[in-house]
């Protein structure tokens, strides 16, 4: 391919008080147009899933939770999810709005959708909200054609106002032939430390023994390492083969008042032969309501020409310049003036 695309995302923009301070976590990530679709059966279309939650009004409505559900599907068969709130109530099947789209290295298109739904719990407690269905795409090294589950643990005790959050593209590309690393930002708007781990079979829908992906030859598996606001994946891909795809399902946990909250991201790791593009500029930042927030990222790609720039789920009024990309190295500037209405948690 002669073009790469990279997604610039922010996570956890949350109004902490009625004052103007808003917490914003900003990540930049690069990929060579993601998601290799091997199976074309209509039942095999799930690509990505994530759920996050916040309590928008912890004083006036401490039991009302706003959920944000993001998923990615084959563009020709965009589906939806039914969010089970974990208290016997279920949100109807919902697709939501398209917040992004792209094309993989073989020309297969995908669509990213998002919706938000509020739910009021009858009492303070801890609840597991989730969606589950079938099917994952064919050709995966783990979980091929199987069920998928994505869940979040909502803890409303001790004044907890949000769960942990992370962000990632629908596909992460890692180069074969050596040990590779990838960093996931993670953050909790209440300031609680966040840790990451691999999901269990029950949490992910993956078969037992396949929850941690493994290279078929040699059996090398990735390791997750926790840092301050960052979860780092390290994986020896010396014996991996370009074109292989793996399900990676990470769980992020924080503890508030002695009770654990959690969120998860279910995505695909694709092995590539040439080096994928790289991007510098990740971090966690503070933005002030009513004031201009800007941040720059720089993308490089040594194996191709032009780099295309895009923003997934861009806030209203935000800009990313240059909007059409350019030659490597490409420096882009994200500009946004947050409003009070932006006080929820979201990823961009």
Structure description:
The protein has 348 residues and is mainly beta. It has one helix and 23 strands. Strands 3, 4, 5, 6, 10, 12, 15 and 16 form an eight-stranded mixed sheet that branches. The chain has a five-stranded mixed sheet with strand order 18-2-1-20-22, with no helix packed on it. The chain has a four-stranded antiparallel sheet with strand order 9-11-14-13, with no helix packed on it. A hairpin with a 2-residue loop joins strand 15 and strand 16. It is globular. It starts with a strand and ends in a 12-residue tail after the last strand. The N terminus is likely disordered.
Short précis:
1% of the residues lie in helices and 51% in strands. By secondary structure, the protein is mostly beta strands. The longest helix is centred in the middle third of the chain and has 4 residues, at 201-204.
